[in-house]
Amino acid sequence: MMRRSVDRFAAAAPVFAALGDETRLSIVARLCTNGPQSIVQLTEGGDVTRQAVTKHLNALADAGLVRSTRDGRERIWEIEPRRLSDAKHYLDQISSQWDAAIERLRAFVETDD
């Protein structure tokens, strides 16, 4: 049982590693807020080149966080909601475990008087 839980958390590592970069996190936030966008749209108003945005999008795609489709000559990028949902689920599980551990500690400290 413990091994399966560890394996699930390990599977989430690429998601959190990808989101650990400020530029990639910003791209994900833009896609979540504004919906599917092209690289041209994603570079508007920013200091990051199209080439750099492409590399970041590929890293996000490798982690399963975004996907692209062709629209004529452009690639349109969008969020892969399942992976974000999985990441939230992992964080919820970790939070629940911490809550339980803190509650056990509180109970121990209060009964030790």
Task: Give a brief outline of the structure.
The chain is elongated. The protein has helices at residues 2-19, 22-34, 39-43, 50-62, 81-111, and strands at residues 37-38, 66-71, 74-79.
Describe this structure in words.
With 113 residues, the protein is α+β, with helices and mostly antiparallel strands. It has one domain (2-111): Arc Repressor Mutant, subunit A. The chain is 71% helix and 12% strand. The chain contains 5 helices and 3 strands. The chain has a 3-stranded antiparallel beta sheet with strand order 1-3-2. A hairpin with a 2-residue loop joins strand 2 and strand 3. The radius of gyration is 19 Å and the shape is elongated.
* Alpha-carbon Rg, integer: 19 Å
SSE order, as H and E? HHEHHEEH
Task: Please give the number of β-strands.
Answer: 3
Strand order of the largest sheet: 1-3-2
Give the overall form.
elongated
**What kind of sheet is the major sheet?**
3 strands, antiparallel
Percent of residues in helices: over 70%
Can you tell me the residue ranges where pLDDT is under 50 for at least 5 consecutive residues?
A: none
CATH class: Mainly Alpha
What is the CATH fold-level name?
Answer: Arc Repressor Mutant, subunit A
Beta fraction: 5-15%
Number of helices: 5
Q: Count the domains.
A: 1
What class do helices, strands and sheet pairing give?
Answer: alpha+beta
Give the CATH architecture.
Orthogonal Bundle
Instruction: Write down the overall mean pLDDT.
Output: 87
Q: What is the straight-line distance between the termini?
A: 35 Å
CATH superfamily: Winged helix-like DNA-binding domain superfamily/Winged helix DNA-binding domain
